[in-house]
Amino acid sequence: MDTYSVMREFADSWMLLFLTLFFVGVIVWVLRPGSTKAHRDSASIPFRHEDEPAGAEDDGATCRKEART
């Protein structure tokens, strides 16, 4: 049996099973009950600084102000 046939047989059987289980596992992990807060926080990233620039409340702005004085 040549290498191609062995690899093809492995991909058609065990690798297909592994990838299917991996896909189902990722879906279950994303839809788990405790992940709602994390998903909402990630979804709101583009709207976080609508009213003022991003540097207004982060530590980087404070450090720059201290360096100038």
UniProtKB/TrEMBL annotation:
Pfam entry (one): FixQ
- From which domain of life does this come? Bacteria
Cross-referenced InterPro entries, in alphabetical order? Cbb3-typ_cyt_oxidase_comp (IPR008621)
Kindly provide the name given to this protein in its UniProt entry.
Cytochrome c oxidase cbb3-type subunit 4
Per UniProt, the ranges with Basic and acidic residues bias are 38-52
- Recite the UniProt keywords alphabetically: Membrane, Transmembrane, Transmembrane helix
Q: Where are the membrane-spanning stretches?
A: 14-31
Q: Decide whether keyword Membrane is in the record.
A: yes
What residue spans carry the region label Disordered?
A: 36-69
